[in-house]
Fold each of these.
Amino acid sequence: MNVPLLDLKPQLAPMREELVDAITSTLDSTGYILGPTVEKFEKEVAAYCSTSFGVGVSSGTDALLVSLMSLNIGPGDKVVTTPYTFFATMGVILRVGAEPVFVDVEPDSLNIDAEQLAEIIDKDCKGERKIKAIIPVHLYGQCADMGKIMALSDKYSIPVIEDAAQAIGAEYPFRNEDGKVTWCKAGSMGIAGCFSFFPSKNLGCIGDGGLVTTSDEPFAAILRSNRNHGAEPKYFHSRIGGNFRLAAIQAAVLSVKLRYLDTWHKGRVKNAGIYRELFQAAGLIDNPVRLPATVYADMQDAEEHNHHIYNQFVIHVPERDKLREYLNKQSIGCEVYYPLCLHQQECVEQLAIFNQSFPVAEEAARTTLALPVFPELTPEQLEYVVQKIRDFYTH
Ligand SMILES: *Cc1c(COP(=O)(O)O)cnc(C)c1O
């Protein structure tokens, strides 16, 4: 049996005609950059994410970059984030000339540890106040602890840019003062929510694409200006900005696909549930296999909300690299997100952060393995994956 990590082909069939129509009408419109197709999609995503505005951009990376630029973050500033994320989260901080500051992750969710974040921010705010933004990442499709993070943001007026590249539609349970819970969409809590439509994300386009959500009208205007060289009006530049524009053809495709997104989320959640049962039945849970933590599953009304959208289903295992090789030999796709933490990357060798110690993130880099979880997988395929993992540990 063959179980790819991700196969986009089966999702194509049911919407192929709609996609072809959308692509054809964009082709015939001869309006290929921004324009009404992009504006329509921006409104749809903003509504989906419960924000006032959406600003379509060229990629998830550029969503982060243009957000930092629009907050005027640059040389002399520091930005706090996690060392256990895709490279882009740190790359954009360095590209605007600012300095990344890392906070280790929680052992269960692998999201930024809000308690340690509070210590770093408290300390900075008693001194030079160099920290100008916080970028929590909603890793694998589960939100960071935004209640604590937004409380810090409010206390010290430090803006939060959510890296929601893996988490479109994921929800965070805010606990209100009266003890009730309000579920908030990823990207609706910070001043900016950054999304990627790279094909492997839950909502992917047919190339590169991204979007920034915000409910701050002046900020939305700055984002729009900066994604197009800061031109306002055309050929007059009060800002520098860049070319971060979204192509109309991508927006046309995304408008079609957005209508299927909640169904796909359900399929991923269902597959994650099947994995949990299979691992349980195989007697593998906790030893040797640690399943992905669902840190909000016990919150009020969690079953009705996307507390995890499983962009990745990531287990922790001993002998990770050997298991990975073994599974690949059995035609099972799996991948390591991520094998090297950001503070250990060669490109930051000259910086103070290089080789600082973040033990939880480093442990994760040694033990995590993402298994296939895309919606169209069959129960037989999931069974095969778990069976092969059991074979590996019992032989
Ligand atoms: C995918 C991703 C990005 C970058 O998105 P691109 O569209 O590939 O530029 C940024 N951050 C995280 C956490 C991601 O997973």
Amino acid sequence: MELLKRIFTTLVTIFASVSSVNAKEHHYTSCALSENPYSSPQPYSPRQHSTSCPGRAHRHTSGSSGSSSDQSCRNNNNVAAAKARFYGHGVTTSYGEMCYHDNSLVSASLEALIQHLVPTVDYYPDRSYVFTFLLSSRLFLPPYELMTRVCHLCVEQQRSGDALLDKIRFREVAPKLVQLLTEWTETFPYDFRDERMMRCLKDMTLHVARGDEVTMQQMTQRLIKRLSALGQYEEAVAALNVVAMERPASLKSKQASAQRSDVLSVCDDPFVLAQQLTHIELDRLSFIGPEEFIQTFAMKDPLENHKGFFRKRKTSNLEAYVSWFNRLSYLVATEICMPMKKKHRARIIEFFIDVAQECFNIGNFNSLMAIITGMNMSPVARLKKTWNKVNTDKFEILEHQMDPSSNFSNYRTALRGATQRSETAHSSQEKIVIPFFSLLIKDIYFLNEGCASRLPNGHINFEKLWELAKQVSEFLVWRQVVCPFDRERRILQYLVTTPIFTEDELHLASYESEGPENNMEKDSRRSLRSSLLHRENRT
Ligand SMILES: *[C@@H]1O[C@H](CO)[C@@H](O)[C@H](O)[C@H]1NC(C)=O
């Protein structure tokens, strides 16, 4: 839960900072909305479900299925029932029930859901079902177990007692099983970082006919390529982090930090800087697996008996992305607090306001929010003499857009605008939507927490799983965008590796820029000086 703690710290910081800005006064005028670059922002219409929990009529009932007229619970799905009649072996109604409401699956036993995933000669599960169940089934059983059971059922249901006949029958269904495994490997490749998954895949390759075997081998090769790209990415991120951590000692006193180049010496064009930030965001986003959203929350669930699987960290790309947000906030604060001259600090603030504005225009809400967060950190916010030299009109409009009040309603409207622009885009630049990521995680977290995964009768609340899948699949569309801007290696390198101040160092640098204003600040400076500079002298 370390990740969650960090996300909530971020959100709390944002709440605190923005509300303090609001308290200062600031009359936001209606021009705020006319600044919106998205062609047709729809009026904000809160969704009916916004606070309610998916899971109709189940929340207060206890087990009994006394339900409305159009809700039906079937013993098993039709396909399985047909299958049971046809082969007369093994497959019976013992898979439990599936409940539908207006033809959409609302709840079912885990057994029935697993069975629903298993293809037969004349049945293949619906694509949205495959995605939804593969995504969320990990709340109930680890992927390895699901895969084993699906493959086993697929083979078993063909059994007649005659070995040769079984083989022929299995070959008839095999193309569909291969299709299912292909969807699995392409949408959730990281599940296959588990050797047991790979072994199961190999086993199936041995079982299928020659034509399917080729398909399986190609699928496996694509999978291995994806996984090795992931491995390289993880190593690269780890290496960059080492570089970023390497030289912080030189920053501890302002004199020494004067030798560090500042952002303006690397890039003084806010458009270019916003574009490079967008590169970093999209790079990191592209490596997050859809299952990481669910896995973050699955760990504490009733999976005590699956410790082996969940002990390994399965959300590292998501964590790396959240760390990037924090890094960018601290980088902005460091750049502002470091210069000795007030004029120089003011110029940097103005520069970052322009960068933030451009991030907003691009649809890069995550960098935008990180920059706003950096500007509102207390070491920056207290630099009153510096802020007095800055024209903050543009910044106030941006803050208003990202205002947390009413559940971030302004931001959600802007996000919807960006999403619509993306859907009708003619250029890849218009396709870009980068959500404020911590909020996305928070929404998914509350959806998961606020809703029981199981109903009192032991069935799985599938309406909740549909809703989780909806939110995650929206993210998958955003993740696909190819960043259209030119890469500027030097700037990228600077953004991801240049040393940044810690919180204490920021405070000290801030006091060195504009001296303490009261006794509390004086005490704080004294203790920071002795602890930080003392440590520096020792190293
Ligand atoms: C905030 O809005 C989101 C998206 O509409 C919704 O999922 C969430 O439940 C809302 N949270 C609260 C506390 O109302």
